From TrEMBL:
PANTHER family, per the entry: NAD(P)H-QUINONE OXIDOREDUCTASE SUBUNIT I, CHLOROPLASTIC
Gene Ontology cellular component annotations, sorted alphabetically: chloroplast thylakoid membrane
InterPro entries from the UniProt entry: 4Fe4S_Fe-S-bd (IPR017896), 4Fe4S_Fe_S_CS (IPR017900), NADH_quinone_OxRdtase_chainI (IPR010226), NDHI (IPR004497)
Role summary: NDH shuttles electrons from NAD(P)H:plastoquinone, via FMN and iron-sulfur (Fe-S) centers, to quinones in the photosynthetic chain and possibly in a chloroplast respiratory chain. The immediate electron acceptor for the enzyme in this species is believed to be plastoquinone. Couples the redox reaction to proton translocation, and thus conserves the redox energy in a proton gradient.
Residues that hold [4Fe-4S] cluster 1 according to the record: 64, 67, 70, 114
Name under which the protein is recorded: NAD(P)H-quinone oxidoreductase subunit I, chloroplastic
Membrane topology: Peripheral membrane protein
CC cofactor: [4Fe-4S] cluster
Any single GO BP term: photosynthesis, light reaction
Organism field: Closterium baillyanum
Length: 184
C-alpha cells in the first residue's frame, strides 16, 4: 500500500512539473505574440543603419601616402595598393588603389589603422550586382561619395523597431509602424 501511495505522489509531482514546463513554454509564446513583427517591405521601407554601421569603404586618393598599413592589418590582405617610388622627392606616389567587396568581410581594420584617415566606412549597404567583377572597386568608385541613407527622402524609416538613437527622426510624419505601407 505504501509503494502505491509513493508511486502516486511521484506521478503527481511529475505531472505538476510537466504542467509547469508547458506553462513556461506557453508564456514564452505569449511574449512573442505581443511583439511587433520585424519584417520590412524592402524597396519601400529601409532600415537606417546605426551610427557605427560598417558599410562600403570610402577612399580619398589625395590623403593616401601608400604606406600599405591597410593591407597589413586586413585579415585577408584585400586592398590592392599599387605605387611607385619617386626618387627626387624620396617618397611613394600612389598609382592605384582597389578593394574587392565580393571578398571583403567589412571588419573595419583598414579604416581603424589608417594613419592619414583616407579610408572611412559609409552607411551604404546596397552593393548587390549580377556580376561579381563589378564588386571590385577602384579608386574612382571608392572615391564616389555615398548617398546617406539617413538623409534620403525616399526612405521611410520604421520607428516601431526602436533601434535608432533618440532624435534621429524628428518629423512626426516619419513615425511609421511596420504595418504602414507607403501610398503609391
Amino acid at each position: 500500500m505504501a509503494s502505491m501511495i509513493s508511486g502516486f505522489q511521484n506521478y503527481t509531482q511529475e505531472a505538476l512539473r510537466a504542467a509547469r514546463y508547458i506553462g513556461q513554454g506557453f508564456l514564452v509564446t505569449l511574449d512573442h505574440m505581443n511583439r511587433t513583427p520585424i519584417t520590412i517591405q524592402y524597396p519601400y521601407e529601409k532600415l537606417i543603419p546605426s551610427e557605427r554601421f560598417r558599410g562600403r569603404i570610402h577612399f580619398e586618393f589625395d590623403k593616401c601616402i601608400a604606406c600599405e598599413v591597410c593591407v597589413r592589418v586586413c585579415p585577408i590582405n584585400l586592398p590592392v595598393v599599387d605605387w611607385e617610388f619617386q626618387r627626387p622627392m624620396k617618397k611613394k606616389q600612389l598609382k592605384s588603389y582597389s578593394i574587392d567587396f565580393g571578398v571583403c568581410i567589412f571588419c573595419g581594420n583598414c579604416v581603424e589603422f589608417c594613419p592619414t584617415n583616407c579610408l572611412s566606412m559609409t552607411e551604404e549597404y546596397e552593393l548587390s550586382t549580377y556580376d561579381r567583377h563589378e564588386l571590385n572597386y577602384d579608386q574612382v568608385a571608392l572615391g564616389r561619395l555615398p548617398h546617406p541613407v539617413s538623409k534620403d527622402l525616399t526612405i521611410q524609416p520604421v520607428v516601431g523597431l526602436n533601434y535608432l538613437p533618440k532624435g534621429m527622426i524628428s518629423n512626426p510624419a516619419d513615425q511609421l509602424t511596420i504595418t504602414d505601407y507607403p501610398q503609391e
